[in-house]
Here is the input.
Amino acid sequence: MSRIDRTHGSGGVSTSGLIRDIFQKELSNVYLDSMCDSAIVPGSSRLAVTTDSFVIRPLFYAGGDIGSLAVCGTVNDLLVAGASPEYLTAGFILEEGLDTEILRQAVHSMAESAKESGVSIVAGDTKVIEPSDPSDPGLIINTAGVGFVDKDFVLSPSKISDGDSVIISGSLGDHHAAILSSRLSIKNNIISDTAPLCDMISNLKKEGIELHAMRDVTRGGLATILNELSDASGCRMLLEETSIPVSPEVSSFCRILGLDPLYMGNEGKCVFILPRPDAERALSIIQKSRYGECAAIIGNVSSTGKGVVIRTAIGGEKTVGPLYGEGLPRIC
Amino acid sequence: MSRIDRTHGSGGVSTSGLIRDIFQKELSNVYLDSMCDSAIVPGSSRLAVTTDSFVIRPLFYAGGDIGSLAVCGTVNDLLVAGASPEYLTAGFILEEGLDTEILRQAVHSMAESAKESGVSIVAGDTKVIEPSDPSDPGLIINTAGVGFVDKDFVLSPSKISDGDSVIISGSLGDHHAAILSSRLSIKNNIISDTAPLCDMISNLKKEGIELHAMRDVTRGGLATILNELSDASGCRMLLEETSIPVSPEVSSFCRILGLDPLYMGNEGKCVFILPRPDAERALSIIQKSRYGECAAIIGNVSSTGKGVVIRTAIGGEKTVGPLYGEGLPRIC
Here is the structure.
């Protein structure tokens, strides 16, 4: 069994073999091992439920792969809802002809990221479809996530208030630039930021930091997400361009290709909006957390006006809208 | 916006438009409308979590479509785990060029099936990929489901015992035959059995029927599923061929094409294994429930030996193994 064929999607003997040899071997836990179509897991308090499909190309890239991404993306969606991520499901859509070793590597990465995030992958499903490019069969992974939210923890754009600070947890554009570099076969040191933000967000909660809103900064980039928060809160976001962290490598890459880091996708970055008195302490907690060393306070909230405005390095102000058009296809 | 293009997968303005115009319009509920990446839902007791991806072709067929299937398939997976289905997530993987009206119809069917099943679709995600056949762009839907299981309700193959009865909730092969008829452009009256089995299973529970095992009979067919239950329980399943319900139309169809209904996929059928003293009463409850009118007691369990054995119409006995090979590709 070194290549996926249609029998792996039949629900018969070959499917069982694939589950046993790859998924169960890599992801084994008491719920998944029961081999039921549904996982029965103990529950309590409020649930958070989310889903994401991952269609990224290439499947493997500097700093991550479709497997780590499929776990981190969904874990981060739960985290920014204020939930403790607990359980994931995984739906695999495999293209006929896929090398089984590629699948194994991706599933192994899922297991590693799940371990780091403290989540269990408790149910799965496999389908096989024809490859869109028979010379390069790929795969798609859907993950859904379930987490628990403390009853007294409420995040809402309506909490965003005049004077709040805006913190970004690290440099922008790394994931987008790494994927594009790989596609264009450009050799550089850019590495995707694919990561689960459990440590950072749980540290903020443990230290009692009051959060008004938090969002992971993925497709659409920071500009799109802050515009959504501006729309939802009725407040204006004012950013300082010089405060926004972008690595020198990504900055050069963007200048050459005419890209704007504010619209580039990330996979391990979070934006926090919180009361100004807590901002410095929150920043320090984030910077001491895993994946947060480059965090920065990048602006503040004003109840006068709407939209996202950026004060540029030379002192001008420009309005920054949400992403129009397609961005980078299949970036996640 | 009458065709899907890559901008619909960007996470930017076009994605928002698609969510607003189609998904939110069709699926609106208080959790989905909050437009967060995760849905926060109230929880209690034990959770059941499941997932399934749906890659069926054609997208629309006699008796159902990819939308109704995506809901019913996951709802039934929760039901046979003994759970009351509550929440679904939906991940859409759309091929560029897909007619938006096709998507709308599929999402509408999801809404109808969700309503019938009493579930809320609480979170979603959209990605766009290149079509594998540009002349006929399609879509894939992943659903994950969350349900609650009563603390004292336990189903397990280990409960399957000597003398237990085997009940099938209706005729076999309808879904498989309907899909194949559509692909081969054969005109007949065969209609897929795509349906949620909530009514049937909740009636059995309400009436206090003791169930040892239940499974929905999908890919791989009844033969594969009973072999799995035989393996897990260490018991032999003895079926009476003349008792197994197959509609006259499906029976003729199978004879012409050399197909065996025992290996054909269904999307609204369940097999129940339960103590013989309860069997007649359970059968009557199933027959009075929605989608159960053709239910039948088809065999019994023996602790002597293993595997699945069928007593044929002419009195012989044959061993029936699980499905080998591919079955019908993209049947669900």
